[in-house]
Amino acid sequence: MVTDMNEINQFFENRQVQLGMNFGLSRMETLLAKLGNPHQGLRYIHIAGSNGKGSTLHFIKEILLAEGVRVASFTSPYLIRLNEQLKIDREEISDQDFVAEFQELWPIIKEMDSEGNGPTQFEILTAMAFSYFSKKEVELVLLETGLGGRLDTTNVIQPLLSIITSISLEHTNILGNTLAEIAFEKAGIIKNGAPIISGVTSDEPASVIKEKAVSVGVPYYQIGKDIHVQAIKQNKLGQSFSFSFDDTSIDNIEMQMLGAHQIDNAALAIAAVTLVRKTIHEKSIRKGIREAQWNGRFEKISEAPLIIIDGAHNPAGIEVLLDTLKTRYPEYAYNFIFSSFRDKDYAKMLSLLEKEANEIIVTEFKHERAAKAEVLYEQCSKEKRSLEKDWQKAITVGEEKTKAREVLVITGSLYFLSLVRKFISNGN
Fold first, then answer.
1. What is the CATH number assigned to the segment(s) 299-425?
2. Which CATH superfamily is domain 5-291 in?
3. Which residues pair with 142 in a beta bridge?
4. CA-CA distances (angstroms) from residue 345 to 173, 354, 381, 413?
5. Beta strands in 32-132, from DSSP E residues, in sequence order
6. pLDDT for 260-292, tens place per residue?
7. pTM of the model
């Protein structure tokens, strides 16, 4: 029997190596049935998308907290520790509660293992979230998909509202080779009785999402057509915008989070809360958007040298990162430290970085899916590039090389950032 967090972390690491990602809902449905279906009876906003899921969720959460709503959230991956993924309001699940939830599942895990139908790491964690939230009498659960939508572990619930933040080419070996195929998978979260809000504007994937909404007979709202942002301004502390949707219109909404994509995410969040709440005070919207922060997303973690970490883990994320850099630091040179999972399109990501980089340092981290530094180096054609297999040394070298009017940007993988953030926060 597992008795503490260290043992649980080790169990999950081993489980990931043994079973990996194994898509489908049958195991999850079996696991939940044996647990007493704790997911039933909760009220959900279900969020899918290639990028922007976590940021949109955090905007929604902060607005609801400002309104006095007790809200649970399930997100992935974590940056520092596993507990971050299960929260009530802003508070992570305690070690004691985490261990208790795991121990409750343990006999079921062993039973399913013995039947040759063992649940994956993510299925176990999702079931723990449902069980934990069901005990806490929350008013609303904000639920982020892990990967895809249609066959994602979280897609066993009936939501009040579904959100698809964005569609880009990712996990093509699993989700499909075109934007339309990926949109079809993400649109699998659309269900009868739950309106869908979409941040997808490209015609091909947007039409797939709209067709699914029409086929199940639910209202469909799209940014740029039904949800509007305008009057975007940059300021010293962040940015601001004006918002309109249906009969709600709010001017000069201020926010700390940076990038045009975050304005879209904030707009999706505002539209979401206006749909699921009969009344929502404008002051709660303003407070929530202003106070929302999401670690690892264009996060400044050092001033001298200037260091930004960003969880861009696919080409679309890299494009957004570069746009944000050019908006916030237009006269700076950009030095990058890059590492990636090998199942990501790191070739395209590197080609995008090369166009704007002063220098690129490629490195690697310990994970069964991590790309080797040598592979990344061979893929990179930037003349001013270097290879440092030890990622901690790569950061030290990067810090030493970054001069005045330069930014050191560390990116490529959220898992990598979880290691980096802890390393830099602890003073190297």
1. 3.90.190.20
2. Mur-like, catalytic domain (3.40.1190.10)
3. 45, 73
4. 11, 15, 15, 11
5. 44-48, 71-74, 86-88, 91-92
6. 889 999 999 999 999 999 889 999 999 999 999
7. 0.87
